[in-house]
Design goal:
single chain, P-loop_NTPase, Rossmann fold, nucleotide-binding, ATP binding, 6-phosphofructo-2-kinase domain-containing protein, about 15% strand, about 40% helix, six-stranded mixed β-sheet, alpha/beta, 6Pfruct_kin, binds 6-O-phosphono-beta-D-fructofuranose
């Protein structure tokens, strides 16, 4: 808790203090520590579904580092059930301060959300995020569009069609998705509103497609359609400023990486909410930002991250965190 308070003083905005704060006394202690330092919101999740509890206990024993040294499953189970009984003895439901209670919301249907003494922008966003997020395993497939004519010429932005290689990729991608998602009842294909992503999705059949403006490539403003060489020659100050701070640099009449990250918030919430697979066909800068969110990469790495063409990054979201696989469909 002291580490967290230090971090808040250093400019942190939201921290998660994960511990067994299941007694009133303990929570009052935390509130006392937070006084004048930060705001506390308690988050209590209550689950009354026997099956889900059993599944969680099983996963805990199989996957948690707490039980890494316990090869005997039954012994682990016994230990964990004892832990639960001990917690139950001292447990006092959260009734003080600001809190969010999520009751039987794991399944994504029914359930109840209690919100007490919460106000302000950030706390409101936290409630919104929690309502939409879950741990049901499902894959998210990220890919850039197939190579475009502007890619061939080294020009940024624009709205050109695919090159021959780009078209070939769109077919390979459709094949891949058909095989990869054939056992999935539902899945959706998300593209930007630019034709290079829409054309990349065209050969994919059997899944609904959604166009998001928020998935459009970074707006390169007055530099749209130019090569990096031309920008360097015609607008050397712009070129240098971008080189110095690519994350914050905003193209005149265009966007910065920080702008892109901000406009992706609704896309991220929607991806968190989905329980079925989603294929996102978008652009280099946008995918750098999206990927960094899911792979938990620091902000400063976003603008220079490798995001090759003709490659699918599969992110598997689930209880154990995020796993990643890459498929390169063309040489
Ligand atoms: O070159 C392809 C592209 O998607 C451009 O349209 C876009 O401006 C650029 O990549 C983003 O990458 P960077 O931020 O490295 O210039």
């Amino acid at each position: 808790m002291e580490d967290m308070i230090d971090w808040m003083h250093g400019g942190g905005q939201v921290g998660i203090f994960d511990a067994t704060n299941s007694t009133r006394k303990r929570r009052y202690m935390l509130m006392k520590m937070a006084e004048g330092n930060c705001k506390i919101i308690f988050l209590e999740t209550i689950c009354n579904d026997r099956n889900i509890i059993e599944r969680n206990v099983r996963l805990k024993i199989q996957q948690s580092p707490d039980y890494a040294d316990q090869p005997d499953y039954e012994a682990g189970l016994q230990d964990f059930l004892e832990r639960l009984t001990n917690y139950e003895k001292v447990y006092e439901p959260v009734q003080e301060g600001s809190y969010i209670k999520m009751i039987d919301m794991v399944k994504g249907e029914g359930g109840q959300l209690q919100v007490n003494n919460i106000s302000g922008y950030l706390p409101g966003r936290i409630v919104f995020f929690l309502v939409n997020s879950h741990l049901a395993p499902r894959p998210i497939l990220l890919t850039r569009h197939g190579e475009s004519l502007h890619n061939v010429r080294g020009r940024v932005g624009g709205d050109t069609v695919l090159s021959e290689d780009g078209e070939l990729y769109s077919k390979k991608l459709a094949n891949f998705i058909e095989k990869r998602l054939k056992n999935e009842k539902t899945a959706t294909i998300w593209t930007s509103t630019l034709q290079r992503t829409i054309l990349t999705a065209t050969p994919i059949v059997g899944f609904p497609k959604i166009q998001w403006r928020a998935l459009d490539e970074i707006n390169s403003g007055v530099c749209d359609g130019m090569t990096y060489e031309e920008i360097k020659k015609i607008m050397p100050e712009e070129y240098e400023s971008r080189k110095k701070d690519k994350l914050r640099y905003r193209y005149p009449r265009g966007e910065s990486y920080l702008d892109v990250i901000q406009r992706l918030e609704p896309v991220i919430i929607e991806l968190e909410r989905q329980r079925a697979p989603v294929v996102v066909i978008s652009h280099q800068a946008v995918l750098r930002a999206l990927y960094s969110y899911f792979a938990d990469r620091p902000l400063r790495e976003v603008p220079d991250m490798e995001m090759p063409l003709h490659t699918i990054i599969e992110i598997q979201m689930g209880v154990t965190g995020v796993e990643e696989k890459r498929y390169k469909l063309m040489d």
